[in-house]
Design a protein that fits this description.
Elements lengths: L1 H23 L7 H8 L8 H22 L2 H22 L8 H17 L8 H24 L4 H16 L4 H17 L5 H7 L2 H9 L1 H11 L2 H4 L5 H32 L2 H24 L1
Helix pairs in contact: 1-2, 1-3, 1-10, 1-13, 3-5, 3-14, 4-5, 6-7, 6-8, 10-13
Length: about 300
């Protein structure tokens, strides 16, 4: 429950004030829907990743019951519709089907990762294999993307190739993207990096940085009006600007998140009533899951 509440507080402490600033201070075009979404981080889903993540955490007790109570064969049968109707369909057609909503991809990732924990695939246990798989797919997508630009004189082939490569690069549901994600995940897992408090602290700030620059009504204003991205596009300084602008937004976002998290902790997250509330909800969920296991 703490994880859900922490994410919810992080999102709403960015979406609400930034949207109001855009509307009443910077006088940007902010629709009624944007204002409404800002106040409802899950249902309104102004930040897709954070919204789906909270839903996934809510579903995790039920998904854990499935993972721990089903046999290997049962889990494989359960994942088959996802593989056929979501992964293969999206990969082959570059279209969204019934499983087009990203929450399905999140659920599939959760179940498949849980499956791999119980029944490891030996291919992913070697760092060399993981790096090679990621590098080959990434290089292939980049190469074919460039080839699509060069083939624009044949508009049908060029646009078709470009559409597929962009889909493979961006969509969680596609086989190339999933393969790269798991290759990177196991590559870093196999590196066995030592625990570092500074790295953990900085990693804890990334959600805030993401929320800061992804608020819908603020996103284009940030890059076009504040960072002046249009001015540098096509210039000889484009690549230098890209690196420093990303670093700048990350550093500023990290400082803002440090302040926000301190305020949130002082006002809410360190309070006894908040901690007791989260513990109470967790104990209720634990009792339900234990009862289900007992019945089984």
């Amino acid at each position: 429950m703490k994880r859900i509440c922490h994410t919810w507080l992080t999102v709403i402490m960015y979406t609400v004030p930034i949207t109001l600033l855009c509307k009443f201070v910077w006088r940007l075009e902010v629709s009624r829907d944007m204002l409404l979404q800002a106040f409802f981080p899950i249902e309104g889903c102004p930040l897709w990743f954070a919204g789906y993540y909270m839903v996934l955490v809510m579903l995790s007790p039920a998904l854990d019951i499935i993972l721990h109570s089903c046999s290997q064969k049962a889990l494989e049968v359960m994942m088959m519709p996802f593989l056929m109707l979501m992964v293969l369909y999206t990969t082959l057609t570059a279209r969204f089907g019934f499983f087009g909503n990203e929450i399905w991809a999140f659920i599939f990732l959760y179940i498949f990762t849980g499956y791999l924990k119980q029944y490891p695939i030996h291919f992913f246990e070697k760092k060399k294999n993981c790096f090679t798989l990621f590098a080959v797919i990434e290089f292939s997508i980049c190469f074919l993307k460039v080839l699509s630009v060069m083939s624009l004189n044949d508009r049908f082939i060029g646009h078709l190739l470009a559409n597929y490569m962009e889909f493979y690069r961006a969509r969680l549901q596609t086989l190339p993207n999933l393969a790269m994600a798991f290759a990177l995940f196991f590559l870093f897992k196999n590196l066995k990096v030592k625990n570092n408090p500074m790295i953990n602290k900085m990693a804890g700030m990334t959600l805030g940085v993401y929320c800061l620059h992804q608020v819908p009504c603020f996103y284009m204003f940030l890059w076009k009006n504040i960072m002046k991205a249009d001015y540098f596009v096509g210039s000889s300084y484009q690549y230098i600007y890209t690196i420093f602008s990303i670093l700048g937004v990350w550093l500023i976002g990290t400082v803002i998140e440090l302040v926000r998290s301190s305020i949130s902790d002082y006002l809410i997250e360190s309070k006894k009533w908040y901690i007791k509330f989260c513990q109470y909800i967790d104990s209720m969920v634990e009792n339900v899951t234990n009862n289900i296991s007992y019945i089984k």
